[in-house]
Structure to design on (1125 residues):
């Protein structure tokens, strides 16, 4: 482990990467509200510099032998020092680069997409806030720092989802996202405290070290692992806290691309990878995670099969791919999970940004309407989206193919074949729903409805086309190339792992796997083509023919209904109402009653002093009786 | 504990600034409103400046009570004018200075009986400052009562929403509190038999038997706990918050509730450490109930100020939980939470006060789209809300974190419950933010002016302080630690 001097160039670059967006955020919020051009300039300048620093760090430390750690004191309480600092190791360097790169591209893209929006400068302020929080979270050396910036990332997400706050659905979605992830974070915090109690600190390197197993009893360790995983479930929208993510699509599309597909929701997976050796100590917890990942992956795929909203489809697919990553990691495929995170960040951001171009241009989210209004006439986004969809489906030679192959290999290593089958099923569903969308857009049916695109409000068209097109082209290129970097990345990521960890984490090689997986993806594409692509097809999927099932999937398996019921009946109608009634009637009522009875008693007593002879006589008489009783007995 | 006498009576100067402000205002004619406001701003500014100076000038390596002033007042009864501050008192002085100054600035636009209002404010704040610096039981009690009485008038005359009821309720509650505190003080002073009210002399270990300590601590805990909003003695506080005018709400929730917690700390825990340890489980239980209960009741309120009121109950529960842990982390967190919560509620009421002044409503259902109507003023409100939720890098996050860490260690079940309440807190505060700030702009509020830079000054100050202490928590922890570590070392 290298603990360099604070003025080491590596550390300075890392600090600059984190702090530049923060400075940009501060400047915009304090001085440049409403100054659109300056705000965008500052924000993009900061993120470009951060990206350069991140690339510099990645290149400089390519082939790193041990983690680079630098910490300073943030606060002290009692014997406990809370550090703040930088931890650079392969996974954080990789994530750092991904975050900076996608942030940079999305911010460029937003110049076009958000042009003319009244909240333009606010948008860039929030984007910078997000970049700061996400970058600092990525390079955290302790779980506490990670937790802190994890929460801040959640805040940025809340602000950006509710960016168009005048829309009720947007503010509602923001609130839902915040509260639902908060539920996961509560578990996360509890898990961290449990670790803190036994370990005395939350340094990531120490938590991942071999000593943890000896210092925490196995049951406690499993409990802590499961609780910490609660944070992953919330942030990465895993079952059962998955439903906030589709709603989060209320935010501007670039936000969906950056936060709710490529980077922020991947933070959960990143956390999993970050603490991978720690989680690995508890096999039962890992099995639970594997189950959760699988359930999520399949459930979300089914939801994606019936959605009409283009962003919803990608949102469900994000959930489903995150489930894939969790499956990979939980199966012990460390490299597979992280690799899929990386490739997914690229092609999913691309999918959203392409969709954004369509939405921006035609003013609708509905894929049928987009097709009918001539979506395919926008060549660059249409081609890029097809490339990205192919990558998502896992078709060679796109990046997704390589990472999904790695995942399947990891799943094949498991003793129980059911996980691999689930993975295959997921791969089939993925390619089916992705190409369902692509074919609907490519081969639109004529409709009697008037074209939506032409009657749309015109303020959508203000933005320039090229700021939006360039990021697409770059991302598409990355999607094409990234898969071939697998060997190099593998070497880079696994370089610091010990041999034992390496063995488990890399998975074996099954020559037949790619053929089955690609075959299944191919079948998915073919089925989609038969149902949606063929000139005479009805464009109704096999799921959509079954009304009940369709409804069930479209209603998100009634998970949201359940939460609504729980919130209304148990939280609002139960505890809240009960406690409020108690406050009004019992506590306050008791106090007011005490007050009233005091006044009443005073009135009674004052009656004795009215000067009426009969009262005086009565008092005299009663007193005599009491005195008599007292003296004689 | 070391005592360092002051070369210059800074602490008395703070009190003198309050008295001077009071006197000048009394001699100014009532129609000179501008001058009255300026005098208030200057005098409160002086108190703030001295508080900041003391906070910085305090020698943390030396620790103990510093800037001590001591004059025998009634030697036959052992009453001395005895002031001094330590790591507990200084954050409170700073808080009072900030909240008072920003409170005065918040009321810059008021027109109703300006003279009387500011005069009473000075009286109130003099009591608060006195309470935080006094080291003599007699003076602590006197200052405590001085700070209570102006509240009655301030709420009954300048308040809103059932103001007479609220003012009476608050006064009766707090008097009931002092009816417990005074016997507690007398009980200890007589049992000590030293003929002194000197806090330091009385806090010598072994002076009181465990039984005496238990009894006296209970008196102090309930007496001051009423003021700190301890469940189930909390119901005066939301009602009072709602009825009070903006600056009074700020001082009330921001500072007065801290007097309660500070009283428990300074009298109860210092004088009766055994009683504190004995009753700590009860304190933890009541505090946890308060945290959870406050959050749930806050969910169903229809008035924004009530929501803030119940959030105060919940957040002050965190202070109580921290005090109950009998640990360095817990105490650090509790004192930090007093400070952070004070700033947060001050910001809450200050920003809401502006919205209320313009829209004349604080009913949640009537408001909406305020972010569109007055983006800056509403922005401050949202910052306050985020602080209340415990967003990191804002002051109260650190306080809550420390309390949770130690509570989880000492009382695993209560700690877990308190942490789980975080989710409910987020829900009830965000619900208000959504209903008040978001949504389409309301036609009847269209064109209402947003807060200007000058009028926004108090909110800017509060936000900056919240952010500074949120980013650099060691500024506060290092200060508090100088008191907590020796304080706990003293325990048997």
């Amino acid at each position: 482990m290298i603990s360099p001097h604070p003025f080491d160039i590596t550390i300075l670059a890392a600090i600059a990467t984190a702090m530049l967006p923060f400075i940009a955020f501060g400047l915009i919020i304090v001085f440049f509200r409403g100054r659109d051009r300056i705000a965008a300039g500052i924000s993009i300048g900061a993120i470009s510099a951060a990206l350069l620093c991140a690339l510099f760090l990645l290149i400089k430390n390519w082939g790193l032998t041990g983690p680079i750690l630098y910490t300073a004191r943030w606060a002290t309480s009692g014997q406990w020092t809370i550090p703040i600092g930088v931890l650079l190791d392969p996974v954080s360097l990789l994530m750092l680069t991904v975050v900076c790169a996608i942030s940079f591209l999305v911010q460029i893209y937003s110049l076009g997409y958000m042009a003319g929006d009244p909240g333009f400068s606010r948008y860039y302020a929030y984007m910078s806030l997000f970049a700061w929080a996400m970058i600092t979270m990525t390079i955290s050396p302790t779980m506490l720092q990670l937790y802190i910036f994890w929460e801040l990332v959640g805040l940025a997400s809340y602000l950006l989802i509710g960016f168009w706050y005048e829309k009720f659905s947007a503010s509602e979605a923001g609130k839902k996202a915040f509260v639902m992830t908060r539920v996961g974070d509560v578990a996360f915090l509890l898990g961290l405290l449990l670790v803190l109690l036994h370990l005395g600190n939350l340094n990531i390197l120490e938590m991942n070290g071999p000593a943890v197993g000896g210092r925490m009893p196995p049951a406690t360790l499993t409990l802590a692992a499961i609780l910490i995983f609660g944070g992953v479930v919330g942030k990465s929208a895993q079952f059962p806290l998955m439903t906030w993510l589709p709603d989060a699509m209320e935010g501007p599309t670039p936000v969906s691309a950056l936060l709710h597909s490529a980077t922020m929701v991947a933070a959960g997976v990143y956390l999993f990878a970050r603490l991978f050796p720690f989680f690995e100590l508890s096999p039962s917890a890992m099995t639970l995670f594997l189950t959760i990942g699988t359930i999520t992956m399949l459930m979300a795929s089914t939801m994606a099969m019936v959605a009409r909203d283009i962003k919803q489809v990608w949102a469900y697919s994000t959930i489903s791919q995150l489930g894939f990553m969790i499956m990979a990691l939980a199966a012990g495929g460390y490299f597979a999970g992280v690799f899929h995170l990386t490739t997914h960040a690229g092609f999913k951001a691309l999918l959203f940004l392409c969709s954004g171009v369509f939405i921006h241009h035609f003013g609708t989210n509905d894929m049928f309407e987009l097709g009918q209004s001539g979506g395919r006439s926008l060549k660059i986004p249409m081609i890029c989206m097809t490339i990205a969809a192919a990558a998502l489906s896992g078709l060679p030679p796109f990046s997704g193919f390589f990472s999904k192959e790695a995942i399947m290999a990891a799943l094949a290593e498991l003793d129980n074949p059911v996980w691999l089958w689930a993975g295959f099923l997921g791969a089939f569903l993925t390619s089916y729903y992705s190409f369902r969308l692509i074919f609907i857009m490519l081969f639109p049916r004529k409709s009697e409805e008037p074209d939506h695109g032409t009657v749309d409000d015109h303020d959508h068209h203000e933005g320039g086309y090229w700021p939006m097109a360039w990021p697409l082209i770059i991302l598409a290129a990355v999607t094409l190339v990234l898969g071939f970097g697998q060997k190099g990345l593998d070497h880079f990521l696994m370089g610091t792992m010990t041999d034992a960890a390496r063995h488990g984490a890399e998975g074996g090689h099954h020559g037949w796997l790619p053929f089955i997986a690609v075959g299944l993806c191919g079948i998915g594409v073919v089925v989609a083509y038969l149902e949606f692509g063929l000139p005479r097809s009805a464009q109704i999927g096999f799921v959509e023919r079954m009304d009940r099932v369709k409804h069930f999937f479209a209603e998100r398996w009634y998970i949201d209904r359940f939460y609504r019921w729980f919130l209304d009946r148990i939280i609002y109608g139960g505890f809240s109402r009960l406690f409020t009634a108690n406050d009004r009637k019992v506590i306050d009522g008791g106090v007011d009653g005490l007050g009233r009875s005091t006044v009443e008693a005073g009135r009674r007593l004052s009656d004795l002093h009215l000067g009426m002879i009969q009262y005086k006589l009565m008092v005299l008489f009663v007193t005599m009786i009491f005195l008599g009783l007292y003296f004689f007995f | 504990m070391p005592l360092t006498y002051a070369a210059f009576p800074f602490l008395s100067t703070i009190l003198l600034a309050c008295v001077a402000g009071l006197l000048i205002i009394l001699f100014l004619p009532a129609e000179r409103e501008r001058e009255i406001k300026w005098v208030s701003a200057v005098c409160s500014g002086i108190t703030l400046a001295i508080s900041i100076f003391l906070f910085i000038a305090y020698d943390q390596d030396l620790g103990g009570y510093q800037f001590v002033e001591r004059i025998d007042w009634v030697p036959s009864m052992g009453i001395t004018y005895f002031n001094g501050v330590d790591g507990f008192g200084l954050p409170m002085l700073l808080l009072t200075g900030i909240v008072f100054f920003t409170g005065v600035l918040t009321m810059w636009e008021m027109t109703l009986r300006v003279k009387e209002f500011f005069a009473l404010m000075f009286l109130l704040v003099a009591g608060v400052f006195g309470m935080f610096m006094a080291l003599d039981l007699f003076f602590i009690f006197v200052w405590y009562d001085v700070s209570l009485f102006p509240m009655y008038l301030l709420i009954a005359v300048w308040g809103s929403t059932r103001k007479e009821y609220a003012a009476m309720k608050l006064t009766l509650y707090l008097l009931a509190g002092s009816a417990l505190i005074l016997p507690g003080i007398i009980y200890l002073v007589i049992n000590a038999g030293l003929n002194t009210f000197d806090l330091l002399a009385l806090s010598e270990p072994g002076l009181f038997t465990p039984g005496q300590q238990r009894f006296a601590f209970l008196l102090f805990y309930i007496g001051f706990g009423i003021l700190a909003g301890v469940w189930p003695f909390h119901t005066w506080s939301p009602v009072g918050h709602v009825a009070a005018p903006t600056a009074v709400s700020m001082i009330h929730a921001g500072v007065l509730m801290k007097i309660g917690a500070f009283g428990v700390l300074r009298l109860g825990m210092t004088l009766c450490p055994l009683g504190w340890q004995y009753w700590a489980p009860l304190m933890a239980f009541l505090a946890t109930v308060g945290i959870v209960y406050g959050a749930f009741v806050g969910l169903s309120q229809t008035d924004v100020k009530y929501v803030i009121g119940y959030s105060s109950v919940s957040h002050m529960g965190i202070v109580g939980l921290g005090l109950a842990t009998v640990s360095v982390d817990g105490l650090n967190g509790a004192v930090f939470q007093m400070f952070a919560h004070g700033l947060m509620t001050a910001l809450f009421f200050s920003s809401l006060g502006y919205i209320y002044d313009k829209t004349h409503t604080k009913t949640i259902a009537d408001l909406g789209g305020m972010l569109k109507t007055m983006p800056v003023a509403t922005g401050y409100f949202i910052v306050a809300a985020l602080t209340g939720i415990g967003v990191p890098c804002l002051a109260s996050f650190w306080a809550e974190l420390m309390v949770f860490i130690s509570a989880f260690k000492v009382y695993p079940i209560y700690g877990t419950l308190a942490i789980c309440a975080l989710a409910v807190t987020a829900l009830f505060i965000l619900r208000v933010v959504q209903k008040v700030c978001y949504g389409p702009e309301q036609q009847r509020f269209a064109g209402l002016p947003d807060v200007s830079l000058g009028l926004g000054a108090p909110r800017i100050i509060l936000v900056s302080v919240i952010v500074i202490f949120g980013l650099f928590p060691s500024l506060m922890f290092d200060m508090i630690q100088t008191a907590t570590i020796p304080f706990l070392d003293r325990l048997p």
